[in-house]
């Protein structure tokens, strides 16, 4: 059985802090000093994110290896990125929502604790 591949975007600040964020799973993002560390942190947070998805009523199987991530976009961040917060829009952020996506994202956000 093959494992699901998760689309990931990198946001890199001017001083090289990097965020890895799963493009389909709002709020699942982690930072590191470089891309490899950010991906490792994202992987480590997968089981905690699975609890959020479960509370929201969605099936989510946390990845078990870095190979489960596919980098689909890289954007330049700002000083805010280096400070510790995402600051750049992704191409996917500018696309219209598919039917039901607003409800899905709202349910996920409502279940962060």
Structure description:
This protein is an alpha+beta fold and 113 residues long. The chain has one domain. The protein is built from four helices and four strands; from the N terminus they run βββααβαα. Strands 3-2-1-4 form a four-stranded mixed beta sheet, covered by helices on one side. A hairpin with a 6-residue loop joins strand 2 and strand 3. It is globular. The mean pLDDT is 94.
Helix content: 25-40%
Q: Detail the poorly predicted runs.
A: none
- Radius of gyration from the alpha-carbon trace, in angstroms: 14 Å
% residues in beta strands: 15-25%
Anisotropy-based shape: globular
Averaging pLDDT over every residue, what do you get? Answer: 94
Spatial strand order of the main sheet: 3-2-1-4
Q: What is the helix/strand order? A: EEEHHEHH
Keywords:
single chain, 113 residues, alpha+beta, 4-stranded mixed β-sheet, 21% strand, globular
Quick structural overview:
This protein is α+β, with helices and mostly antiparallel strands and 113 residues long. It has four helices and four strands, in the order E-E-E-H-H-E-H-H.
